[in-house]
Design goal:
The complex is a heterodimer of chains A (319) and B (326). In chain A, 74% of the residues lie in helices and 0% in strands. By secondary structure, chain A is an all-alpha fold. In chain A, α10 packs antiparallel against α13. The longest helix of chain A has 33 residues. The termini of chain B are far apart. Classes of the chains: A mainly alpha (319), B mainly alpha (326). Chains A and B meet through α3, α6, α7, α8 and α13 of A and α1, α3, α4, α5 and α8 of B.
Amino acid sequence: MTAAETIKKVFTKEKLHRFIFGTREKQGVGKMIVIYALLICIGFVYLYPMFYMISTSFMSRDDLLDTSVKWLPSQFYFQNYIDAGRSMDFFVSLLKGIVIAGLPTLCNIVICMLVGYGFARYDFKGKKIMMGLLIFSYILPSQVTMIPTYVLYNNMGILGTILTFVIPALFGNGLNAPIFILIFYQFFRQIPKVLTEAAAIDGAGHFRTFFRIAVPSAIPAIVTVVLFSFVWYWNESYLTELYVQGLASKSIWTNLVVQLKNFDQSFNTRATVGDTATSLNESVRMAATSISILPLLIMYLILQKQFVESIDRAGITGE
Amino acid sequence: MGYLFVLPWIIGTLIFVLIPLGQSFYYMWYNIRITPLGTKFNFVGTGNFTQIWLENPEFPQQLVTYIWQTIVEVPIIVVFALIIAIMLNGKIKAKAFFRLIFFLPVIIVSGPVMNMLVSEGASTIPAMNTQAVISALDAFLPTAVATSIGELFGNMIMILWYSGVQILIFLSALQKVDPSLYEAAKMDGGSAWECFWKITLPTIKNFILLNAVYTVIFLSSNEQNQLINMIKNAMFSGTKEKGYGYASAMAWMYSIVVTLIVLLFFLILGNKRDVYDRMVAKRKRMLKREARLAKRIERRGARNVRKLERARRSHKYKTYDGSGDY
């Protein structure tokens, strides 16, 4: 038997086909390669803006003008970051941003948990209408209620303070609160009713049952809500500017995202005063962008497991 | 007892949703001016609307762009998220790593960050030459359609960036599909392709709707959206005809459009009950109606008996005592 014949015998057409496309039991190599290639390509597209941002932010002015410098800057130029940070009042804005996002988040969890528990555990008249209203209030764009709410806050005299975020959150109408209520609702429905009944037999009241049985078992849902609520409040610039800053009034409240929005202006005023060395260019702007997302990025990398698995565990998908 | 738990939300919804909703409905018929002496309301009827539609060329234009964009982008985002979720759901290595990447944008996406990235050109990949795509499509499609598809390719990264949450929702939905269904299908000789259409898709149908609605809401409240900025600008504009009333009218029209789009997706993707379910529901309704009728008859009978009894007791009815004089 010649070598060619042996090869022909070993690598038959069916085997090759099976190798590439796989059988019912085993995935083929060809399919795997296609999947990995697609995933890596899409992953690259996903990360492209981040790469671009980071690489540009380290370029000095000469690198920017030099067409031969495409991705890797000739040296790491940190002055951009220093300028951007100074112009944004980085540490002050960071602390304020944490307060702006943290305090309403705290109110959000407590109230959404109560409301979700109420919806999940009790039957009462008009529950269906209320659930409909809940979904409606999510679908309704906030723009339509924005103007009267602004007037209301103005009349209450809390415009330009953090209370404009805290008070709605205290009444279960914070940012994206309907989603959180639904998460808790879904979660509390999954707890076996026997548990609460047993507690009731042992003499626990409604609130005691809630605090002793429901809350401890809802830790995964709580983690989800804390993370998402924090991130969404942190990234909300439209309403922050409108309510917490109050637009017209000079407010002390600000966060990094709002600072980034008004970056060009604040940078230029600072440049004319003579505080900064360089003039405004895209490296500085990219540096500003990266430092404004840096805190969340760090948080994400530390808590990534909670983030990614939270949706799984919280049972959003149980609907 | 349930009311006590839900009470904060009820109050909040009244104060922060329903009452403002009514108020802005009221505002939109007025021209509102803030003077040092107080707020002045001037009834203008439909004046705000004619103003917006006839004298503000930007608003109708942006509205049309928004509708077109949403209707095109939502299916793309949802389908794309589904494809990625299916790929991630298979047996692959480094699943956690890929999930990490695909979820990253959710954390950092915010209006100003996106504006910065878009304005510096970080959002388009130079290698993806949109011009070539447009000219290729132009050959057999109307120019307007070709350009918008080309724009879509140009915004590809943004579209991809908006699909993080959707991917995770699909992923956890896929994991909940009963594996024994697939096994049964395999026994009967179903291919993976058939399994997808006959098992996966029907099972996760509700999540497709959920994701579509989520995407619509996300796109409509995103700061990349020009309309919401326009509303805000109109609100604080110092000109005579603009102001709170004008902005309210805009906001109302905008929300109606958003609601209509959501409804559209509900109609397309919503659950159509099959004939059996419908008949069961009809039968149940009929039974209920009959029960109600029976109850009413019973109640009425009891009442009449009581009435007669009372009348008899108070001697209203005089029984014929045989005197021959009545």
